[in-house]
Predict the structure.
Amino acid sequence: MGPFIVYFDFDDSTLSAAEKKALNEVAWNMILVEPTFAAIGGHTDRAGSDRYNMALGAKRAQVVSDYLKEAGISPKRIARTSFGERQPMVPTADGVREPKNRRAEIVFLK
């Protein structure tokens, strides 16, 4: 199932109200489809250094993970990783700000 995708503003890891609503749906699906495991990948656009983007991707994955935990999902059912700028949704040149690449993807695994 999925991926479910939440997007972030440039250089940010804050969840908007719309993204929180989407994550509520993710949590609800996890409750309905037990045992489900959520794999969360944090992504960035290609603006900034690789090192910085890996850290930002990790922060985005952490924010999503924390939200799901607050929604009642056990931490044992959540894994997260950062892809930084390495798996863009929209391929761009280095340094390009692309909103669709600033995201966290949640994939359900059984």
